[in-house]
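tokens incoming
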């Protein structure tokens, strides 16, 4: 096991045991007891959801928070809900995942050069964490960053973008969060943090089913992320076989 893997394992065990936010603890556990009828035979996770992916990843994806009947049920980010259906298909198409679907923690999904975490690790009521709850979780995200030392960060939605900007400001890497505003397709270099930040709309049903967000829009941004990582002369980047074939076709003009 690599040093990063060991550190992430320790961190994730701490995350799973966290009870810092009484409102979130009560909600996630109540949802796990009451369940949704469609999942009445499931044993819900009902705990904070740890990060997931390649411990040597150069790309860190930051989401908002677990879904009440998605990640709070399955125990893995973007697994078991409609957001995950959209996201993992996009990651598979871009060569960061070995399969396009995510239904449970033991479904065989593997990420390559990618790690996924969230601004808040517990499912919040109405998908709206309080500022104090975001602050309580910020230390976990900071430790993810310290362990992974990512070259690129992809923020899913404005809240994730603002939380990550808050981390950068707290560390003195930027003078103010408002200096870099969120937009789909936003891209900004943070020299002091030695990374590039990308932004995309969150893959929520509200965005995907209304047409505000399309697969082509995600493909375009993920392609830029991958090209950025590949162009780093001092870093060797590996992708899944699907991703390598897609890159070869593009270079040949097909």
């Amino acid at each position: 096991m690599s040093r990063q893997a060991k550190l992430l394992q320790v961190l994730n065990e701490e995350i799973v045991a966290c009870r810092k936010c009484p409102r979130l603890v009560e909600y996630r556990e109540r949802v796990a007891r009451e369940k949704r009828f469609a999942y009445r035979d499931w044993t819900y996770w009902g705990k904070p959801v740890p990060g997931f992916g390649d411990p040597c990843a150069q790309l860190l994806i930051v989401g908002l928070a677990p879904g009440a009947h998605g990640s709070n049920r399955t125990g893995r980010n973007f697994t078991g809900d409609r957001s995950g259906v959209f996201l993992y298909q996009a990651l598979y198409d871009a060569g960061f995942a070995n399969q396009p679907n995510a239904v449970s923690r033991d479904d065989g999904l593997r990420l390559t050069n990618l790690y996924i975490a969230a601004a808040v690790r517990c499912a919040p009521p109405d998908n709206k964490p309080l500022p104090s709850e975001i602050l309580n979780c910020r230390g976990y995200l900071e430790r993810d960053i310290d362990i992974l030392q990512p070259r690129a960060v992809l923020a899913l939605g404005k809240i994730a973008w603002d939380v990550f900007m808050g981390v950068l400001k707290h560390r003195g890497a930027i003078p103010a969060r408002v200096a870099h505003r969120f937009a789909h397709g936003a891209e900004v270099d943070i020299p002091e943090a030695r990374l590039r930040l990308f932004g995309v709309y969150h893959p929520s049903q509200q965005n995907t089913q209304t047409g505000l967000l399309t697969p082509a829009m995600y493909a375009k941004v993920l392609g830029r992320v991958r090209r950025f990582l590949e162009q780093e002369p001092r870093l060797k980047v590996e992708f899944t076989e699907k991703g390598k074939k897609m890159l070869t076709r593009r270079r040949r003009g097909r």
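note: The radius of gyration is 17 Å.
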